[in-house]
Design a protein that fits this description.
CATH superfamily: Aldolase class I
Strand content: 15-25%
Domain N-(5'phosphoribosyl) anthranilate isomerase (PRAI): 5-189
Shape: globular
Helix content: 25-40%
Pathway: Amino-acid biosynthesis; L-tryptophan biosynthesis; L-tryptophan from chorismate: step 3/5
GO molecular function: isomerase activity
InterPro entries: Aldolase_TIM, PRAI_dom, RibuloseP-bd_barrel, TrpF_fam
Number of strands: 9
Distance between the termini: 57 Å
CATH topology: TIM Barrel
Protein name: N-(5'-phosphoribosyl)anthranilate isomerase
Number of domains: 1
Order of helices and strands: HEHEHEHEHEEHEEEH
Bound molecules: the ligand O=C(O)c1ccccc1NCC(=O)[C@H](O)[C@H](O)COP(=O)(O)O
CATH class: Alpha Beta
């Protein structure tokens, strides 16, 4: 919600910055404000427009002004609505709204145009064991993000347990409502990168060709 926070997020290593346009979000911003904050995004850092039950006109106007790389739809939108804007999108599902037992194939069939999904956990605490994530659809082949108000000290564990494509943070990195805290942002990026490195190291262990020359 502040240009300085937008710039710092990119400088600290965030992959993308999201602007929220959902009417019910207490973090929603006006299109004009988002457009001017977009200028503060560091080159190569993505810009995301996040919607929740906005009208077609509102989404069209925000996309026209902001030119985001990606849209997120976190309301009751259907696939046809989301794909009509011609940019890649993720569809958000709240944990409590997911049909129990729904697997990745069913989700993909319901949202064939989605580039991926966001799964928003209902319970922010005690989310670090595999069994806490049983509600996630199985057999997901598209990338997905996790959101849900994580504690910073559990981010490493969550990423290495669930192996999402990324995580979304909002309140977790705020000093006060709407005001991001640089040190908390740094810690989130650090923990996420630490988890990435751990995963890459695990994946590579024993599989890299021996490039040493005697
Ligand atoms: O969950 C998402 O899909 C998401 C996408 C882009 C940015 C943020 C996202 N999640 C966090 C939130 O939706 C809320 O901003 C957060 O839970 C705080 O709620 P509120 O104060 O109503 O904005």
């Amino acid at each position: 919600m502040r240009p300085g926070d937008v710039r710092l997020a990119g400088e600290l290593g965030a992959d993308a910055v999201a602007f929220q346009f959902g009417r019910e979000s207490t973090h929603s911003v006006r299109v004009e404000a988002a457009r001017s904050m977009r200028q503060a995004i560091t080159p190569l850092v993505g810009s995301v427009a996040s919607f929740a039950n906005n009208t077609q006109q509102e989404v069209r106007e925000a996309i026209k002004q902001l030119r985001p790389n990606l849209a997120i739809f976190a309301g009751e939108e259907e696939d046809a609505f989301c794909r009509a804007f011609g940019i890649p999108f993720l569809k958000t599902f709240k944990q409590e709204a997911l049909v129990p037992g729904m697997d990745g194939k069913q989700l993909h069939a319901k949202f064939p145009s989605a580039a991926g999904f966001v799964f928003r956990a209902a319970q922010a605490s005690s989310t670090t064991s595999q069994s806490d994530w049983k509600w996630l659809p199985s057999e997901l082949t598209k990338p997905f993000l996790l959101s849900g108000g994580f504690r910073i000290d559990e981010i490493f564990e969550i990423i290495t347990t669930v192996e999402p494509w990324g995580i979304v943070v909002c309140d977790e990195i705020e000093a006060r409502h709407g005001l991001k805290d640089g040190e908390l942002m740094r810690q989130v990026v650090f923990e996420s990168r630490r988890a990435d490195c751990h995963e890459v190291q695990n994946a590579c262990e024993g599989t890299l060709p021996d490039t040493r020359h005697d």
